[in-house]
Structure to design on (191 residues):
């Protein structure tokens, strides 16, 4: 696709289960993208691998200022995707029991998602900020390991609230190797 959703273009209400989305390319959402009309998407037990976005969201891009899509990922693997911004995921709302690894962005990671529970975020890179991801609200019971950013937040950028019962180890950046936070956020039961 020239614009959005190299493999799959999500519309209004979408459900993807037990699929492989691999080796696709687009400007935004190399593997999976959405238009600017909003909606709800659920992706379960799906591999999103080796996709490329020339602009944003190598694996998935559902980010929109005007009408964002509510995206829920459950038991997914998002790996080896590339983009200018947001190598793996850009714009998820809820991410449960998923693995996000070996994705790369030449710029910053973009807004990865809002809520992460029981996830592994490992060996991702960003040329600028947020090697492992940029999380808007909270991360619980997750592992953030071996991610790298050129500037800030090697593990994750946090835009608010909490990191709970999570292990953050072996991440690197110029500032905030493990976590770099904007505004107020709390670390509870973390190592």
């Amino acid at each position: 696709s020239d614009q959005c959703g190299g493999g799959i273009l999500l519309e209004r209400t979408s459900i993807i289960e037990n699929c492989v989305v691999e080796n696709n390319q687009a400007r935004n959402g190399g593997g999976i993208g959405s238009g600017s009309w909003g909606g709800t998407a659920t992706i379960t037990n799906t591999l999103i691998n080796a996709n490329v976005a020339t602009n944003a969201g190598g694996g998935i891009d559902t980010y929109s200022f005007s009408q964002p899509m509510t995206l829920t990922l459950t038991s997914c693997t998002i790996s080896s995707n590339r983009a200018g911004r947001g190598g793996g995921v850009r714009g998820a709302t809820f991410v449960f029991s998923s693995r996000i690894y070996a994705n790369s962005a030449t710029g910053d990671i973009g807004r990865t998602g809002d809520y992460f529970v029981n996830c592994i975020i490992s060996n991702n890179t960003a040329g600028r900020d947020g090697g492992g991801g940029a999380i808007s609200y909270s991360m619980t019971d997750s592992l953030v390991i071996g991610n790298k950013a050129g500037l800030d937040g090697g593990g994750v950028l946090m835009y608010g609230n909490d990191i709970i019962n999570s292990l953050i180890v072996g991440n690197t950046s110029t500032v905030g190797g493990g976590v770099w936070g904007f505004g107020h956020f709390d670390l509870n039961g973390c190592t």
